Amino acid sequence: MSTSITDPHGDLLDDLCRDLRSNAGKWESVSHWPGESLKRCGDAGVFRWFVQKEQHGFGWSDREQIEGYLRLAEADLVTTFVITQYMGAIRRIAASENQYVAERWLDRLMNGELFATVGISHLTTSRRHLKDPVLKAVEDHEGYRLVGMSPWVTGGAHADLLVVGATLQDGRQVLVAVPGDSEGLRAQPGCELVALSASCTDQVFFDQVRVDRSMVLGGPTENVLSTGVGARPGGLQTSTLAVGLSMAAAKYLEGEAVARSDLAEPAATLRGEITSLRDRLLSASDGQMAVDASQIRAEANRLVLRSTQAALMAAKGAGFVQGHPAGRWCQQALFFLVWSCPQPISHAHLCELTNVTPSLDLG
After folding, report:
1. CB neighbours (10 Å) of residue 81?
2. By the 8 A CB rule, do 176 and 146 touch?
């Protein structure tokens, strides 16, 4: 593993990001799964950043993880988004008290030999309001049977293992690891989205899928996602990806400003805003300052929309041609308005867009 990236600084990460950036334009539709870039990341040790050293990871600090994600998102948002879901599965396996799953799967997942993803949105922001759970767990003498579907699963059709949450009849929840080839499991190939279609995010259906007790990662308990070290849904991660995409747009604007003096001031101002928010993210990640994650998310959303549109305006008509990165970044920026976006933030953005005074000030 001599070529592994063991810290977020230095030439190895630069080389990886250069490779990811060169391929970023390829990942356009559900038929363009970024397997090539994921393999490159696996070879570079990226998937070990997020696991402690005693489990053969690199044990990066929260700050170092943010730094790594910023660089990856700047280079290739599609691949980086897939990695966040991949790491969501890995972190929950690593954090579970169930050593059987970790011993059987974790090392191959960290090597990039196998791919895992998560199906937990229905326990958090997506469809949580529905009275009848979309994915049910029925307990039997061997473990559980899963019935229903998980609505938003990234790369489900490509997953060797899925970490999913399901709800029992009494309202308690379980978190389980399900092999992708399980009988009765049917993963859809991916929705064609406005952006990030190549993440192959779609529904996964479970028709009496059996899960042995040896594959239970958490529960049964109320709010199973709030238990365990790996339980960090939301937080600063999505904001980090938004700032990373803003960095890509700002770099493009700065490049254009070299030959166009009218862009110099806008480019410098935008860079200053991004640097300020990036520094706040890093300070918050290592506990140097108290932070309102919702406020940072709202600011990151605004920034990514403005910075990508600024890049498009600098690119002029060329940026509006399919395949130009500025146009792609503008589409990708819309992702942050809908993916894991808390309702108060969505409401605040909607009020801003319609010139209504919001009831909750998020900065």
Report:
1. 25
2. yes
CATH topology classification for 237-353: Butyryl-CoA Dehydrogenase, subunit A; domain 3 (1.20.140)
Nearest CA among 239, 352, 232, 245 for reference residue 296? 239
- Peptide bond preceding 189 in cis form (omega within 30 of 0): no
Instruction: For residue range 224-283, list pLDDT tens digits in order.
Output: 988 764 544 447 999 999 999 999 999 999 999 999 999 999 999 999 999 999 999 999
Instruction: Please count the helices (runs of H) and the strands (runs of E) in the chain.
Output: 11, 8
Q: Where are the domains of the chain?
A: 11-115, 117-226, 237-353
11-115 shares its CATH topology with 237-353: no
d(CA 214, CA 218): 11
Cross-strand partners of 166: 174
**CATH, domain range 117-226:** 2.40.110.10
Strands 135-139 and 173-179: unpaired
- Give, in order, the Cα–Cα distances in Å from 58 to each of 115, 207, 228, 302: 19, 38, 20, 33
CA dist 240 to 89, 172, 243, 254, 314, Å?
19, 32, 5, 21, 24
Q: Are 120 and 164 in contact (CB under 8 A)?
A: yes
Chain segment 318-349, per-residue pLDDT in tens: 999 999 999 999 999 999 999 888 788 888 88
Residue-level length of the chain: 363
Single-letter code of the amino acid located at 40: R
362, 355 contact by CB (below 8 A): no
Helix (H) or strand (E) holding 173: strand 173-179
- The CATH class of 11-115 is mainly alpha
- Residue keyed to tokens 């997953």: 159
Name residues whose C-beta falls within 8 Å of residue 301's C-beta, 6 or more positions apart in sequence.
242, 336, 337, 341, 345, 349
